[in-house]
Write a structure and sequence with these properties.
This protein has a domain of 116 residues. Helix content is 70%, strand content 0%. It has 238 residues and is mainly α.
Length: 238
């Protein structure tokens, strides 16, 4: 059976299952059962056709992403898959495996492009895998950040790092501002206000929450907009 036929057969089987966890279990069993060389070719077929959209490969690709990012596969199997993909010259498969938990931080840093669609990155933002989450935080996108902020594995320090990023997209700062869970934290409010890339109207709505020492810092900061410095000075006078 060719890799294309095997991938189609597997994708149909995964799509027929009603629960995501069932799909992940079947995919894990398949990858454990077949030869590594066949497995990476099938992954390549699912990845390539899944990015084109449409059943049954769309569901199969989501299952693959969830399996790699959710700690479903053991480290040894992921490493073997990665090495086999590298040897076969399947760069997209090796990058996909790097976006899960395999290999290590040093190798992960060398691969700057998470080659998945926006929908897949949003899906992976719900992962429990810290390497995946840290990687997504390095390339903030509004829809992805929205899911990240709801992830129980995200910490206050993570959100502060997202809010402090420079340059920052206004849309990302707005997502952080709208998060009821995180905007209640003083450190998050402070970081948004002190970041000159935060839209001025958002900063002005938060400045009155700042403590005296942070208001003094704002007054002397040349990087923030003048209306914000003026507002901080007025609050200090009061």
């Amino acid at each position: 059976m060719t890799a294309a036929a095997a991938a189609l057969q597997l994708a149909r089987r995964l799509t027929a299952l009603p629960e995501p966890k069932m799909r992940q279990q079947i995919l894990r069993e398949y990858l454990q059962r077949v030869e590594i060389e066949e497995a990476v070719q099938v992954i390549h077929e699912i990845y390539t056709k899944g990015r084109q959209g449409g059943p049954p490969f769309d569901i199969a690709l989501l299952t693959l992403a969830a399996t790699l990012s959710g700690g479903v596969l053991d480290y040894e199997l992921e490493t073997r898959l990665y090495l086999a993909a590298k040897e076969a010259g399947l760069a997209s498969v090796s990058r996909l495996l790097l976006s899960g938990q395999a290999i290590g931080r040093e190798d992960l840093r060398t691969d700057e492009n998470l080659e998945l669609t926006l929908g897949h990155r949003k899906f992976m933002a719900r992962s429990h895998n810290r390497l995946v989450l840290e990687r997504l935080m390095r390339f903030p996108e509004p829809d992805v950040i929205c899911n990240l902020l709801e992830n129980p594995r995200i910490t206050e320090q993570d959100v502060v790092l997202i809010a402090a990023k420079r340059p920052a997209k206004a849309e990302v700062q707005q997502v952080v501002f709208r998060s009821r869970r995180w905007i209640a934290r003083y450190a998050v409010k402070r970081t948004l206000v002190l970041n000159p890339y935060t839209p001025t109207d958002l900063s002005l709505r938060l400045v009155s929450f700042l403590r005296r020492q942070d208001l003094q810092l704002l007054c002397t900061s040349p990087s923030v907009p003048e209306p914000l410095r003026v507002a901080a000075a007025q609050l200090l006078e009061r």
